[in-house]
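Propose amino acids for all 228 sites.
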């Protein structure tokens, strides 16, 4: 749930830290999750609040409440919980009078696979909730795009993509492919490239597929845009 990677992907993380550093000069900065911070984030509303602040910029609890269809009391409480774990912070430059503005502390969140197999069932449950909520947000984003694509210029409609591919790979090859795709995305500059630029969301969903008994299925390669 970040600008260049979906909010919140399954991605190897550096050594975990309980509180994210504030690094506004680094728009690619990620906060790695650890068991404590994961439990602090693993709530549907908190995940959506953080995604909104990352995608749309600073906001107040009341503004977020109106946007997400929640009460301002609920959004205010969950924003304070997010702040406790270093996900959000005050944006005093935006405040007016008693209004408290919030901003995301980092551009994205990374989660290490070890959290899905943690000995503590509470951590495993939080990891499962987190990744399922991210998948739901991805689905909603795609649906929103499909429902509003006609409002965008032809150039943007041509640049969008909804493709899938099936390859027959080893785990090592799959990891290599994933890392190369990430590296390619990160080659693009983070500064504003011009007046016709817009935020461009890229979702990467990659996973093995097999039969009902878990055995690998027959591999094939589909053309872009196919349903495989």
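Proposal:
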């Amino acid at each position: 749930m970040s600008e260049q990677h979906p909010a919140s992907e399954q991605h190897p993380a550096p050594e975990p830290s309980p509180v994210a550093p504030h690094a506004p000069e680094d728009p690619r900065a990620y906060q790695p999750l650890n068991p404590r911070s994961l439990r602090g984030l693993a709530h549907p509303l908190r995940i959506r609040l953080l995604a909104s602040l990352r995608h749309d910029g600073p906001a107040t609890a009341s503004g977020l409440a109106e946007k997400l269809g929640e009460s301002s009391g609920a959004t205010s409480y969950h924003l304070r919980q997010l702040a406790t774990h270093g996900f959000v912070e005050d944006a005093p430059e935006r405040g007016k009078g008693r209004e408290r503005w919030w901003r995301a502390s980092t551009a994205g969140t990374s989660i290490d696979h070890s959290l899905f197999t943690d000995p503590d069932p509470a951590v495993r449950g939080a990891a499962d909730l987190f990744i399922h909520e991210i998948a739901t947000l991805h689905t909603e984003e795609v649906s929103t795009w499909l429902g509003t694509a006609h409002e965008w210029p032809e150039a943007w409609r041509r640049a969008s993509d909804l493709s899938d591919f099936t390859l027959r790979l080893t785990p090592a090859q799959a990891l290599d492919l994933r890392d190369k795709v990430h590296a390619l995305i990160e080659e693009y500059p983070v500064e504003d490239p011009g007046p016709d630029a817009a935020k461009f969301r890229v979702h990467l969903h990659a996973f093995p597929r097999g039969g009902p008994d878990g055995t690998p299925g027959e591999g094939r390669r589909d053309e872009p845009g196919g349903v495989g």
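The beta strands are 9-10, 30-32, 59-60, 88-90, 101-104, 108-111. The radius of gyration is 19 Å.
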